[in-house]
Automatic annotation (TrEMBL):
Gene3D superfamilies assigned to the protein according to its UniProt record, in alphabetical order: 3.40.50.2300
Descriptive protein name: Response regulator transcription factor
InterPro entries (UniProt xref): CheY-like_superfamily (IPR011006), NreC/VraR/RcsB-like_REC (IPR058245), Sig_transdc_resp-reg_receiver (IPR001789), ST_Response_Regulator (IPR052048)
UniProt entry tagged with the keyword Transmembrane helix: no
Pfam short name (any one): Response_reg
Keyword Phosphoprotein appears in the UniProt entry: yes
PANTHER family in the record: TWO-COMPONENT RESPONSE REGULATOR, TWO-COMPONENT RESPONSE REGULATOR ARR22
Keywords (A to Z) from UniProt: Phosphoprotein
Coiled coil: none
Residue numbers bearing the 4-aspartylphosphate modification: 54
SMART domains: REC
Species the sequence originates in: Thalassobacterium sedimentorum
Domain Response regulatory: 3-119
Length: 135
């Protein structure tokens, strides 16, 4: 049974991400959390094959949550989303073992689908960075 967890504090974005996962991929169940503490409790109580986390969330930030999850299960496939696209953030995400990083300002359905497909098909923690650069 394939299960996904979407961690996003903005309700509309959380619902859109969950809807996209349900519509385009073979997830049997999609759980949602609006903050890091809630997500951690959900993670401990179930097994997820895929997790999407906003980096800027209340109570336990997304990077700390992702690191905690990866300490518990190194093989967990995680994509993080953020509007913070500075070099430091990208470097920290890359070092952490997270599979992919999506820059929210460049996020579109195409970018999301490509990122999710790439990470879902990866057998190794190949770092995937998805950003749309404006010309």
């Amino acid at each position: 049974m394939m299960k996904a967890l979407v961690v996003e504090d903005e309700g509309l974005t959380r619902d859109l991400l969950s809807s996209l996962l349900k519509r385009e991929f073979d997830f049997d169940e999609i759980a949602q959390a609006s903050d890091g503490d809630e997500a951690w409790q959900l993670f401990l109580g179930d097994e997820y094959t895929f997790i999407m986390i906003d980096l800027i969330i209340p109570k336990l930030d997304g990077l700390k949550l992702a690191r905690r999850i990866l300490e518990h299960d190194r093989g967990q496939k995680i994509i993080v989303l953020s509007s913070e696209c500075d070099d430091y953030t990208v470097k920290e995400v890359s070092r952490s073992g997270i599979f992919g990083y999506i820059d929210k300002p460049g996020m579109s359905e195409f970018v999301l689908l490509e990122a999710i497909r790439t990470v879902e098909q990866s057998r190794y923690a190949a770092r995937v960075y998805f950003k749309v650069f404006e010309s």
